[in-house]
Amino acid sequence: MSAAEQTGAAPAEQSTDDLVLAERRGAVLVLTFNRPDRLNAWNNDLENRYFELLDQAEDDPEVRAIVVTGAGRGFCAGADMGGLQRIERAAGRSVRPRPRNFPRAVGKPTIAAINGAAAGLGLIEALFCDVRFCAREAKLTTAFAKRGLIAEYGLSWILPRLVGPSRALDLLLSSRVILGEEAERIGLVDFVADRDDVLDAAVAYAADLAANCSPWSMAAMKQQVLRHMDTDFQTAVAESDALMLESFERTDVREGVASYVEKRPPAFAPLAPRAERDATTSDAPAAAGAPA
């Protein structure tokens, strides 16, 4: 094992900019974790580059949806084990520029294309996406119980909401490996495809969202779902009523109706950069407040 592998750092010959590749496919941005020799194991440099690219995508009006996948045989095999060896010495001393659940706060739709192994933190990153496509052959596991760890980064909040409490506990306590088709059956992922097709299927789905759905509507609905999982029904209805009245004043409603009547594709305005949304309540669905 090389010194770079022992420390969890990127190989010397690999630029930090290359740890996550960015490719535009029309209005869809494809982000690819790119440490294939390590099954895209997670380290701080990869995280920083990934979050940086998500920030850029959030503020780029030409990007309307984001697909996340892995290079080579894996999606992400979890935290780099070399890095884990020194975590206990640094516990409580690291300061992150963004919260670990940052991907959930991105206003644009994020779609995971799980092309291969997704373990531990790698599985969590897939669950932080809004929708998941998965290769039938992909192996998924929580892994934490077999490493003496706990359900990290809000996994204990996300997992029961996807698969139910008992299945969540099964996956957490046993750390057993499941394949894509079982993951779809229990609700952990949304769609399955052959390994060679999973990325194209995810991109096609994202491209349909980009072409036909209002960016403002999608951002607003993402935050509604996150907030309302922790509110009572009447609160959710009241907030929805207020947002509905607001939406009637927006050009997106007029364009959505006109495009339907005229039988043409809609031409919705792009989502404004985050700073502009934050500065105007009409363009800023409430920030994600649900834990993740």
**Largest beta sheet, briefly?**
6 strands, mixed
Binned, the helix content reads 40-55%
Strand order of the largest sheet: 1-2-3-5-7-10
Please state the structural category: alpha/beta
Average pLDDT over all residues: 85
Please count the beta strands (DSSP E, at least 2 residues each): 10
CATH superfamily of the largest domain: 2-enoyl-CoA Hydratase, Chain A, domain 1
Runs in which pLDDT lies below 50 for 5 or more consecutive residues are: 1-11, 85-95, 281-292
What name is given to the CATH topology of the largest domain?
2-enoyl-CoA Hydratase, Chain A, domain 1
Separate helix tally: 13
Beta strand %: 5-15%
Indicate the CATH class of the largest domain. Alpha Beta
Overall 3D form = globular
Query: How much is the radius of gyration in Å?
Result: 20 Å
What's the CATH architecture name of the largest domain? Answer: Alpha-Beta Complex
Oligomeric form of this entry?
Answer: single chain
Q: Calculate the terminal CA-CA distance, rounded to whole Å.
A: 34 Å
Number of domains: 2
Order of helices and strands: HEEHEEHHEEHEEHHEHEHHHHH
Pfam families: ECH_1 (PF00378)
Organism: Conexibacter stalactiti
Biased composition (Low complexity): 281-292
Keywords: Lyase
